Structures are given as structure tokens and as C-alpha cells.
């Protein structure tokens, strides 16, 4: 997605910048239809992959429903499901916006591509948070010493990184 941002959006900005320098009338050079279609197709692939990951996450909920159902686990489960549902809705909305962008002219399609790109960035963020909550649930479900020790190591590592960032060691 970063490559697409660099290739598509920065190219548009460079063209606008060059066109305003060469003429006193601030007219934009049109974006080639092939570039717009390539960007739309690439974003379709990203949206489909995000929808597939969210759907697979919804089918394989990281909760066994077994003997331990404390309040923390239920909060983490609801956070996982909420993040997963938001991920799926954002990516499906981005796909519909991309469908609409295929039907319109290049200038309006560029705006719709920007909106779809933003929605997919948000979907990836929520997908990451859903993964985080799934891992927290798994660490609580497996109540053996290995998972407790690895959770403690992860928390210690996080605290060390946080303290290093406070002292600007990076």
C-alpha cells in the first residue's frame, strides 16, 4: 500500500506542481486512465485480502467457551469481535467505493481512490487490533507456565521499550 501511495498519489502531486509552474492558469493534467485502473485493481486485491482475513477470524474465534469465563476474557472477546466487524465493514465499503470509481471519470475516481485508500488503512489498523485481542485471549486460555512466562516476558519487553523511549535511547 505504501508503494501504491508513492507511485499514484505522489505522481499526481508532482504533475499538479509542474503544471502550475509552467502556466499561469492552474489547470491539472489528467491522470491516465490506465494508472487509475491499475490502482483500483491493486486496491481491490488489498480489500479482498482484508475481507478474507476478517472473515476467517470471525469463523475461528479464539475462545473455547470452556471452564474459564471471567470478565476480562469477555471484554477481550467483545473487543476482538468489534475490531473484526469494523475491519470487515471498512474493507467492504472501500471495495464498493472502488466499484463506483470504475464507473466515473478520472478526476472523481482519484478522489474516490483516496477515500478507499484511507478506509483500507483504517481496516488494517483494526485488523491489527483484532489480532492483538486474539493473542491476549489465547494467552489467557492456555493456562500453563509457558504462556504465563511468555506473557510476562512480552510485558517486560514492552516496559523496557517504553522506558527506552522516555530516555530517547533510540
Q: Would you write up a description of this structure?
A:
It is a single chain. With 170 residues, the protein is mostly helical. The chain contains 5 helices and no strands. The chain has a domain at 34-62 and 69-142. This is PGG domain-containing protein. InterPro entries: PGG_dom.
What order do the helices and strands come in, and which of them pair?
Elements: H1 2-22, H2 33-59, H3 71-103, H4 106-141, H5 145-166
Helix pairs in contact: 2-3, 2-4, 3-4
Key words describing this protein structure:
170 residues, mainly alpha, elongated, transmembrane helix, transmembrane, PGG domain-containing protein, PGG_dom, membrane
Mean pLDDT: 78
Q: What is the rounded distance between the termini?
A: 26 Å
Shape annotation = elongated
Number of strands: 0
SS element count, helices: 5
Order of helical and strand elements:
HHHHH
Strand content: under 5%
Helix content, binned percent: over 70%
- Estimated radius of gyration: 22 Å
As residue ranges, the low-confidence spans are 22-27
The biggest sheet amounts to: none
The structural class is mainly alpha
Give a brief description.
The protein has helices at about 1-20, 35-60, 70-105, 105-140, 145-165. With about 170 residues, it is mostly helical.
Amino acid at each position: 500500500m505504501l508503494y501504491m501511495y508513492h507511485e499514484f498519489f505522489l505522481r499526481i502531486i508532482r504533475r499538479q506542481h509542474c503544471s502550475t509552474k509552467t502556466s499561469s492558469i492552474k489547470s491539472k493534467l489528467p491522470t491516465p486512465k490506465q494508472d487509475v485502473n491499475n490502482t483500483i485493481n491493486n486496491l481491490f486485491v488489498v480489500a479482498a485480502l482484508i475481507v478474507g482475513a476478517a472473515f476467517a477470524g470471525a469463523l475461528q474465534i479464539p475462545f473455547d467457551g470452556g471452564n474459564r469465563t471471567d470478565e476480562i476474557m469477555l471484554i477481550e472477546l467483545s473487543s476482538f469481535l468489534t475490531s473484526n466487524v469494523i475491519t470487515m465493514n471498512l474493507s467492504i465499503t472501500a471495495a464498493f467505493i472502488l466499484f463506483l470509481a470504475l464507473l466515473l471519470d478520472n478526476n472523481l475516481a482519484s478522489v474516490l481512490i483516496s477515500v478507499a485508500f484511507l478506509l483500507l488503512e483504517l481496516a488494517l489498523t483494526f485488523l491489527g487490533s483484532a489480532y492483538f485481542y486474539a493473542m491476549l485471549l489465547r494467552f489467557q486460555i492456555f493456562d500453563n507456565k509457558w504462556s504465563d512466562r511468555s506473557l510476562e516476558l512480552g510485558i517486560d519487553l514492552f516496559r523496557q521499550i517504553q522506558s527506552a523511549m522516555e530516555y530517547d535511547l533510540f
